Amino acid sequence: MSSAKLISTLLLCMVVTAPMLNIEASIPCHTVTVDLASCLGYLRNGVRVPSRNSSCCKGVQNVKNAARTSKDRRETCVCLKRAAGQYGIVDYKFAAALPRHCGVKIPYHISPSINCKSSIK
């Protein structure tokens, strides 16, 4: 019986103190790249502009919805720049147009020179 009280007390303490910790969620880079994997064909050569209900556009929307804080958006930017550099196959002209094709508004312009730390709020 005393162990049940201890567990209850610990859970209560966790619930009460969690908002005070001000923990910001982080989006794993792997999640971002998986969400956008179906966009690679378009990002390479612009052929077959994705429709708004395509898996590509759903991935774009998922990434935008997951990046709620400034920290999340900056980390997502860094992740995408790193992935684009590693694969060397992204045409930034198509990358910049992708959110518009998918009907997703983002508050910055996608380019190879974007500074993820200072340009993204």
Compute the CA-based radius of gyration: 19 Å
- Determine the mean pLDDT: 79
Q: End-to-end distance, in Å? A: 50 Å
What characterizes the major β-sheet? none
Structural class: mainly alpha
Helix run count: 6
Family: Belongs to the plant LTP family.
Domain Bifunctional inhibitor/plant lipid transfer protein/seed storage helical: 29-116
Pfam family, one: Tryp_alpha_amyl
InterPro entries: Bifun_inhib/LTP/seed_sf, Bifunc_inhib/LTP/seed_store, Plant_nsLTP
Model description:
This protein has a single domain (25-121), classed as Plant lipid-transfer and hydrophobic proteins (Hydrophobic Seed Protein), CATH 1.10.110. With 121 residues, the chain is an all-alpha fold. It is built from 6 helices and no strands. The protein has helices at 2-21, 29-36, 40-45, 55-66, 70-87, 92-102. The model is unreliable at 1-24 (pLDDT under 50). The longest helix is centred in the first third of the chain and has 20 residues, at 2-21. This is Non-specific lipid-transfer protein. InterPro entries: Bifun_inhib/LTP/seed_sf (IPR036312), Bifunc_inhib/LTP/seed_store (IPR016140), Plant_nsLTP (IPR000528). It holds the Pfam family Tryp_alpha_amyl. It comes from Salix dunnii. Residues 1-25 form the signal peptide.
Please render the helix and strand layout as text.
Layout: H1 2-21, H2 29-36, H3 40-45, H4 55-66, H5 70-87, H6 92-102
Brief characterization of the structure:
Belongs to the plant LTP family. This protein is mainly alpha-helical and 121 residues long. The chain contains six helices and no strands.
